[in-house]
Amino acid sequence: IVEGEWGRIEEITLTYVVVRIWDLRRLILPISYFIEKPFQNWTRVSADL
Fold first, then answer.
1. Structural domain that includes position 24
2. The predicted structure's pLDDT at residue 4
3. What is the pTM for the complete model shown?
4. Does residue 30 form part of some domain?
5. Which of 8, 14, 17, 20 lies 20 to 30 A from 43 at CA?
6. pLDDT of residue 46
7. How far, in Å, CA of 26 to CA of 6, rounded?
8. Does residue 13 sit within a domain?
9. Which residue has the higher pLDDT, 26 or 41?
């Protein structure tokens, strides 16, 4: 859950993360967002990378 929206991580780069939110829009956030602000990880199957 990011900025009150739930979705799936679609892409991770060195400068930004793309989150595909529930209504199929893309939320593009700078990597610094995930360093500075809390977020929830709701992994469905496992937390393995």
1. 1-43
2. 82
3. 0.73
4. yes
5. 14
6. 67
7. 11
8. yes
9. 26
* Side chain identity, residue 12: I
Q: Is the dihedral of CA 29, 7, 12, 27 positive or negative?
A: negative
Please write the tens of the pLDDT for every residue from 3-38: 788 889 999 999 999 999 989 999 999 999 988 988
In the chain, the number of structural domains is 1
Question: Dihedral of the CA atoms 4, 7, 9, 10 (nearest 10)?
Answer: -130
Tell me if 11 is assigned to some domain: yes
Nearest to 40 by CA among 13, 15, 7, 17: 7
Assess if residue 48 is contained within a domain.
Answer: no
Nearest to 20 by CA among 2, 47, 33, 32: 2
What is the pLDDT, as a whole number, of residue 39? 79
